[in-house]
Structures are given as structure tokens and as C-alpha cells.
Amino acid sequence: MFFTNPNNRRASCYALGTAMMGAMGLVSSATAADPTVAEQASEQAFDQEQFDQRFNQEKPERNWSLIVGGGGMYEPKYEGGGDFEISPVPFVLFTYGEWFELDPSGITVTPLRHEGFSLSGKVGYETGRNEDDSDRLRGLGDIDFAATVGAKAAYEWGPVELYAEVEQTIEGSESLIGTFGIGYSTPVTERLILGANAEAIVANDKHMEAYFGVDATQSAASGLPEYKPKAGLKRVDVSASATYLLTENWLVRGEAGLGVLTGDAADSPIVEEKLQPSVSLFVGYKF
């Protein structure tokens, strides 16, 4: 699987939800049989065969999962900004079976799963942007909060996931955004899961003009030169994460990422810094 930067936040929340659901599946299978053994194993190298045996033998009776928690993110105040802020992030993650998921970024329904391939639909939101978020944005006006609809196709090959998704904003910026990525996540001990992700994000003209463009009226009000960006690749993101299972119910997750604005987005007079680093830390509890 919250924010000034709508794209980063939705991506972070999606990654968070995915990692935490996977992590709680690991802890329920790895500690339920023998907590003492699991405690000892956490200090040793991960035994894949032992994990697989426990996982297959001790499937949970219920087909739903609920995690609540919170944390914070340290990131630029807006996409392209040079000033940073810490944002508190409360969250609720709920899944039912393998087809329904509710997380802080929206609702995802996955009607199709077959031999590693999955196809999902999602309803979410875009937080928009407030011109008061930074002096650089004064005179540019606000970008309204709006609903989004999207679809995602993914293929899992062991610990690797390849995916492509598209998302359309209804009203607001009327953005159409495409994301192509690869993710990797694997348990290295009975309690520790490491992950990495890389993705490229492309956007249509309306998104680029809303978030990186400056029209004549905005130029007169802000003092920035007029600028009309075109559709294309707007940024590349890479990240690494670690999820640690404190107990059978508690977990903590940290993530560090770096976004690099490219093309017309990077050249915008609104942008102060092309490199967009971020860090986050979350604590969750599974009921």
C-alpha cells in the first residue's frame, strides 16, 4: 500500500498494506506452533523449508485480517519541493479473503488470480495540493481533492512482483497516471522481512499542467515564468523497506525511498529539487 504528494502517499500506503499483510501471515504461521522455537529462530538464518512446512500446516481458520496502527513520514512538502515536513499517518488495513482490501489509500477488489497473475480494480482519492503549502506555490491556486478509479495487473514470480497500473482522477486535476514497477520481498529470518521496489511513473497533459505547469494568470500572480509541460515520464522511484515482527500481534516497519523527477516535470519552475527523498516508520497491531 495522508499527504501533500498524492502519488507518493498512495504508493507508500499500498506498499505498507501489502508488507504488513504479508508480515502478519508470516508471524501467525511462524510463532503459533512454538513461540520459544520462533524466538530462537529469529536469531538464526531463515530456514525456508521449515517456514513452508509451518505455513502449510497452520493455515488461519478465519479468512479476514485487521491491522490498525500509525506512524509518520518525512518527505517534501509538495512534489518538487525543497522543504521537508513530518506528517503523522494513522491507518487501518482490512482484508477479506484474497479479493478485498481496504487500506488508507482506498478500496481494492481482485476478481482474478491465476498462476501468479492477478487483475485488480481500485477506488481511491487524490489529495490535491494547497498553494499555502509553500512560498513557491503562492499564486498558483489550489488543486482540489478528488476521487480516483484505477486498475492493476500484476505477476508474482516467487518473491518478485512485476506490475502495471493506471489511475484516472475524477474531477480535480483530471490526471491519468500510469505506473510500471518491480518489487521484491522476502523473509530473511522468522521475524524479519526485507523488501525493495523500483517504478516509473508516466502522466497525461492534464496532470503535468496541474502539478508542474504555470499559465498566464498564475505567472502574473506568482512571478514564475509561464510553463506548459507535456505528457510523459515524470519520475522514477526506488525504495527499500524492513518489517520486523515484535510479537505475534505487533510489528514495526521502516522504509527509505528516493524519487527522481524527470523530463518536463524536472524542468518546471515550480520544482525546487529534482531529488525527492523520504523516510517513514510505522507500528501496527493485528487483531
UniProtKB/TrEMBL annotation:
KW Signal (keyword) present: yes
Cytoplasm as UniProt keyword: no
Keywords: Cell outer membrane, Membrane, Signal
UniProt-listed InterPro entries: MipA (IPR010583)
Residues of the signal peptide: 1-32
A GO cellular-component term linked to this record: cell outer membrane
Pfam families: MipA (PF06629)
Lineage: superkingdom: Bacteria
Main location: membrane
Locations listed in the record: Cell outer membrane
Family: Belongs to the MipA/OmpV family.
Protein name as catalogued: MipA/OmpV family protein
